[in-house]
Amino acid sequence: MSPVTRHSSRVTCHVKTPISMTKPTTLILSCLLLATISTAMAQDKDKKSDSGYIFTVVKQLPATSVKNQYRSGTCWSYSAISFLESELLRTGKDTFDLSEMYCVRNAYSDKAVMYIRFNGKHNFGGGGAAHDVTSVLKKYGMMPNEAYTGMTIGEPNPVHGEMDEVLNANVEAVLKNSNKKLTPVWHQGFNGLLDAYLGKVPEKFTYKGQEYTAKSFAGMMALNPDDYVEISSYTHHPFYSKFIIEIPDNWELGEVYNVPVEELVQIVDNSIDNGYTVVWGADVSEKGFAWKSGVAVVPDKNATEIAGMESGKWSKMSDADKDKLLYKFDKPNPEKKITQEMRQVEFDNYQTTDDHGMHLTGIAKDQNGTKYYLIKNSWGTDGSPYKGYFYASEAYVRLKTMDIMVHKNAIPKEIRKKLGIN
What we know:
single chain, alpha+beta, Cathepsin B, Chain A, two-stranded antiparallel sheet, globular, disordered N terminus
């Protein structure tokens, strides 16, 4: 994806025939008029450009095509699969289109077992976390999308509403059955529902003329699931330790490493600088997240004034009127300075929740030099000004990141040492 840039216009008059000495004034006036109109148009274009976001990509890493999770809660699979596809590109492999639904199916099956073992006192649904994908890779292997699409109900994109409800009803029925004990086939029955909605998993498949199983295909990919770690930044656990992050979709009780927010940003920047992309788990239910505008920002409502506004007018405006200006997304505005305390308050008060998993693939700057991250989403390309990508400001990433997944070698050595990662 190319960055948005500003271009100036210039007019050149080319004369292909001799100029009559009797009509020089007409030609000169015509050229002057054309130049004047063109200059006015160029100035007007610059003015319009200045009123919007103008991004210049500083570094963008290779990624596969944008996919569409559509009407399913499977962003965790789409983001982590996109990440693994970029990892394959980084390690010199071909361009792969891996199966998101293979991961969804296996995770759902394991999730049902966990839910029953917790006697229903556990999260169950379509959501998940990035480590669900690496767990599937480690336990079951992987498949290309062509071998397992998960599309059996006649829809071009995932539509999981009925499936989610039916699977939930099934595990609830297993818990509430009047036999007072589980039958030995309850899980087989659950997997039968997955077969109906997503399709049976083939024992073997052919890919580019070679026969594989899911395990042998994963072996051919040569990605080590243990190389990928998750990192967060909260003060209710000690820094440089691991903890089970307390979010509902962490049904597998996965652990994250805890670092200060400054080091979280260092890890992201170091990853991109050294060719490693990042899985980004974040909250997108904010006023500052504007998919149709292609940006995610944290405007500073307490700013003394907005650029271009009459001095003192901003301070006299109501919060509602300030919001109208701050969330028009027609130009960059001052953003909040994010602190560790702000992150914790928003997490503790459910203002930052585990909404969405995405793929962070680059770094950019706006026309003011403010840093943004280039984010690959899984909502298709319709209605997206940047073809399925958007730009999240550093302030947004600092405040709204739940956790990230990176290759362990992407972490700066001094931070790895603090975390005890070899």
